[in-house]
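Researcher: I've been going back and forth with a colleague about how Regulatory protein zeste might be arranged in three dimensions. Neither of us has a model we trust, so I'd like an independent prediction. The organism is Popillia japonica, in case that matters for your notes. Sequence below.
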Amino acid sequence: MSDKIKKSRSAHFSKEEELLFADEVYKERNIIECKMSNKVSNLEKDQAWDRVLNSFNSRGLACRSIDQLKAKYDNLKSKARKVVANKNKCIEGTGGGPSYDSFDPIIEAILKIINMKTVVGLQCPFDSDCYSENSTTNIPASPNSTIDSEPIPIIILQESTVDVAETTENANFQRSLNVGWNKYIPKKLKEPVSRKLRPTVPTPLCQIKEDY
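Model: Here is an independent structure prediction for Regulatory protein zeste. You can compare it with whatever you and your colleague have in mind.
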C-alpha cells in the first residue's frame, strides 16, 4: 500500500485578505501578467511573486506560501471571467435580462489587473450588430442649431460671347436633319446630286492665269 501524500491545507482567504492580495498583485501587474516566457522574464516573475509574498505576509494575517498565492490568483481570475460572462449573457436576454448588481470589490480589483481582452474577447470591426458601451452615435443637428461652417469660396465666371450667325446655322442644320423620310422612295436615289452636296473641285492654276 502506497503512502498517502498529505496535502498542506490552510484557512480560507477572508475578504480582507483577498483585497490585500489583489492590491499587492496590482503593484506587480506589469511583470506578473507579462506574456513573455524566457529565462529573463521568468526570473523577473519569480522575483515579483517573492515581493508579493513578503509584502502580504508582513501584514500580520495568515501566513501563506507562494504556491497558495499563485493558486488563489488563478482562481480569482477564473471567477472574474465567469462573472463577466454571466453578466453579458443576461444582457442578451429579453428586455435586457434581469437586473444585475454591481461587481464585488474583489472582482473589480482583479479586472483592473488582467487584460480585458482575455475576459470579453476581441471586438470584430466587420460585424454591424456589434455593440460597444463606449460607442457614440452621430445625432443630426436641428435646423435651429447654429453650426460653425467653413466659408464658401466664391467663383467668378467669365463672360462668354456667342455669335448669332453660328447659332442660326446650327439651327438650320438641325432642322434639315429632322426631315421626315417617309415620302422618299428608292427611285429617288437615281436623281442627280444637288448642288449643295456636290464636292467642290479646285480651279487649276493655269486656268487662273489665263483668266487673269
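Researcher: What would you highlight for our discussion?
Model: I'd start with this: The chain is about 45% helix and 0% strand. After that, consider the following. Residues 15-120 form one domain.
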